[in-house]
Amino acid sequence: MPTRTSLAQTSAPKDKAKQKPNGKGKSKGNAPAESKTLKRKREKDDLEKLQAAVNQLDPKTSALTKFSELPLSAPTASGLDASHFQNLTDIQARAIPLALKGQDILGAAKTGSGKTLAFLVPVIETLYRKQWTELDGLGALIIAPTRELAVQIFEVLRKIGRYHHFSAGLVIGGKSLKDEAERLARMNLLVCTPGRMLQHLDQTAGLDVDNLQILVLDEADRIMDMGFQSAVDALVEHLPKTRQTMLFSATQSKKVSDLARLSMKDPEYVAVHEAATPSTLTQHYLVTPLAEKMDTLYGFIKANLKSKIIIFLSSGKQVRFIYESFRHLQPGIPLLHLHGRQKQLARMEITRRFTSAQHSCLFATDVVARGVDFPAVDWVVQGDCPEDVDTYIHRIGRTARYERVGRAVLLLDPSEEEGMVQRLQQRKIPIQRVNVKEKKKQSIKSKIQDMCFHQPDLKYLGQKAFISYTRSIGLQKNKDVFKLDALDLQAYSESLGLPEMPPVRFQKAEDIRRLKNRSRAELSSGSEGEGEGGEGKKRTKDEVRTKYDRMFERTNQDVLSSHYSNLRPAAEDDNDFFAVKRVLNEDEFDPESKSGGGPRVVPIYGGQELVIDSKRREKLLTSKKKMLKYKGQSTKIVFDDDGEAHSLYELQGEEDFRQAGDAETQRQRFVQAEADRVREADLEDKQLAKEKRQEKKVKRKERERMEANDEMDAAEQPTLGGSGDADAALDFLRSLPIAGEEAQQDEDDERPRKKPKKWFEDDSDDEKPKSKKGRKVIEVTDAPDTLEDLEALATGLLDD
């Protein structure tokens, strides 16, 4: 996201207004106007003197050693002094004078030589001398290949330009494009990556680049290669032709086609060294087989726990796998990893942590191989062979920076040694071979295999790391160094903890054609064909493998993630690992099969038997689909409106009708079948009616028995004045008939009759109820609890 720098406004904005004649504006009553006029005149004189000093500067004869000797503005000089930049490096002493005079530059210097200041100082000075303001639009554009390098350039720009008033922005992606677009229109200077800047040039309407003065490409060889070629070509189309262009890198490209693409005008080639690497850098290479690379890296880390190490690998998947593996092994040093697939905030946080760390180990891809300045790096280890010498130079440039001491180690497979060492010697790079001490070697193969067995996610990362490494080797153009056929890939996959080697897609065309044209017999037997000596592995007839055997032998085709493995129930024993459709008991086997002398005979549906004489027939028992043919034909049913299920009505064909007999015979057969069905239904109905009558009779007898018992209990109840006891009186009152009960009992003596339904009710229903014979009925709402309540109730009964 573009960020405005905290720069003080020390230079005046562009103002072409001249002082009025006749001395106006110089009166005593107009002192502020007089001071502003004097200030503008003084700044104008300073700019003229600065421009004259730049014109008089001769880059070829001047022997400059300090920044104070350069014709720089006061804000730039103050910023350099506050940032503790005093002495000029070789590339700075040669490139800055040429850039101040407006010439195009091709700068080539070894890593850590100060190329960043070699183009930042001329950029700031050019905009200052032209009195650039926000109204003038974008004045300078600096492009870097990676986000980490762009952030580093922007931080250096903020330090040395702290006393200028320019607005500077950083455009590296990872955030909202809309938020960046809102600020780009006010920027004078931008540091960016190619892809994100091209996106803004295509989509941001307020971005004006017609007045661009300077274009800078840091690590130009990487920006100009095939990876960024289309982006750079499209980006240059938006820029004006009349501009100053500067290219800086440790390995500079001088091809005419690259220079023509950038519209450079007579560029000056500045190369300040013969050797491509610093003299304070000690370089070694170590020949180790591919299968022992993990052991070598782990042993190296354990031997340098008090150091700051960067280990370069060829792919991000290898970085993730080795980082996760070593993190579980806990070597005793803080581990970090950095690759291009991480989020922007995570990459910046890891870069900050490694920069501030005293002892740490960083696993990284080439995303930080160019231009990034990590202070006090002791070791640079290249775990994978670089694709070319330029990549090797950029990688080892992360150590021995600014004349400091550093050490670098390159790990090579025996097949890569001859070709790579020869190319390094052709570029005059001093490198020596070393060997690992026997007591320092450590084998972690068994530990990694154990971790991959217990952690499916780590095994998955190992598979991806193996595939990405073989793919990178297969895609390399330099076949003299990278020989895929010469690598022991099986042993390498075992060193990564993989039980089976993942398939390798990068093979020779003739091998692919030979594999595709194999016969079915060769495919089923698993033979790879006969070799040159005709000693191909053949299988006997008894060893023929089915497709199910081959399927279950694919133990490394897919890996369950931790989330999916948690969803599966844990297997209690080995027999429960695979869910089977049918479990065969011992009593289901043929006696002959128990003794192992012949095939097994297993009973299945409908009294049928299935002979098991091969593994394929045995697998058939576990397949529902293949067992359907033994179950018989199923019948489709439908449901009517009442929810009853019946067979689907289908119209019989004419041929089937004739085969069943003539029409009269079929009619008589149908009538007879229906008559039988009706008789059976009639018998069922009669039996059901009989059962219902018996049930009613039993209920009536039970009711009569209960009524007889109630009459006997009433005869045994005590009278009111029998004992005068309260409990006896209560029992007597409870035995009294309820209103309407007497009439009901009279009716019960006769055969019970159904009462007419009452479909309405009137006001008379709410009055006090009376019995059918007109006698008065006393309603007892609450049961009498005391003797007074009982006497009151008895008095009411006697009055009646």
UniProtKB/TrEMBL annotation:
PROSITE patterns: DEAD_ATP_HELICASE, HELICASE_ATP_BIND_1, HELICASE_CTER, Q_MOTIF
Occurrences of domain Helicase C-terminal (ranges): 293-452
Protein's UniProt keywords contain Acyltransferase: no
Limits of the Helicase ATP-binding domain: 96-270
Entry GO CC: small-subunit processome
Molecular function via GO: ATP binding; ATP hydrolysis activity; identical protein binding; RNA binding; RNA helicase activity
EC number: 3.6.4.13
Function: RNA helicase.
Family: Belongs to the DEAD box helicase family.
Protein name (Swiss-Prot/TrEMBL): ATP-dependent RNA helicase
Organism: Pseudomassariella vexata
